[in-house]
Amino acid sequence: MKKIVGRLAGALLALVLTSGFAAAQSKVTIAIGGGSCLCYLPTVLARQLGEYEKAGLAVELVDLKGGSDALKAVLGGSADVVSGYFDHCVNLAAKKQELVSFVVYDRYPGLVLVVSPSHNKEINSIKDLAGKKVGVSAPGSSTDFFLKYLLKKNGLDPTSASVIGVGLGATAVAAMQQGQIDAAVMLDPSVTVLQGSYSDLKILSDTRTQKDTLAVFGGEYPGGSLYTTAAWIKSHEKEVQALTTAIVNTLAWIHSHSPEEIMAKMPEEIVGKNKELYLAALKNTIPMYSLNGKMDPKGADAVLAVFSEGSPEVAKANIDVTKTYTNKYVDQVKKTTGSSTK
After folding, report:
1. Distance between CA atoms of 319 and 152, rounded to whole angstroms?
2. What spatial distance separates the first Cα and last Cα of the chain, rounded to whole Å?
């Protein structure tokens, strides 16, 4: 009888502790601009590693078609935080909307402008895209911004190509294979998947490495980050710090484990059936991930310079780019955990 009572007491205590832990967790919804894209891997991997829970958060990840859709979710109140490209913070600053990036996980954008295999003969340069149908994740997303920047850089009207939303994963690959579009701005693993089927795949611009990024933008150009409204950060500092800690710890885990170990942690539906191609794409992408989660001020300046060149609205707005990001929470991770953010 005593054993039974002891077991019941133990079970009750465990239930109380579990309930207390659940109650202590803060709920946060993160909208992702395309969860299958390797550019957003740290956000998904943090969940797989249990880093959000360790930081005291109950995080819901909502997978959307593109960065612009994720941004709309936060501005509309259906999500708390965006896992998307930092450049939206700069672009929206011109519209007097205060969005702030608080942890950066991509040092480079990883955007690749690819020609559809069935249109290889007619498209040999970016200038050949005038009047063509070009796929982007979603109109108004970073893929769209990148296309317009390249068109202008090559002496074309930024609106000279027809923009079509095709997503970032299987839908984008299918649109390219079926010739529904003439070219597309894509990210890995989709680029590597196409290269696996078409050895002569034509790439017009690539920003997956430091060298290529410098060639395109003239400087490092931060890609994916967690960002939200300045108002939400002010009223949810505890949650912002917890999210930052989870991502910084995840980045440290990425850079201390093999690509095979990273892939093993990712959901099967994201990895897909062809694990060899996913692994090859992951190996290409790992150098893109930040070592420390910090925003490089020069990188933020580069984003502003690119948008000022392509958008008269941004150029005239006199944006203080230092207000579009903060390293405060990343610095705090180092202070509280002793982990290096160098």
Report:
1. 21
2. 58
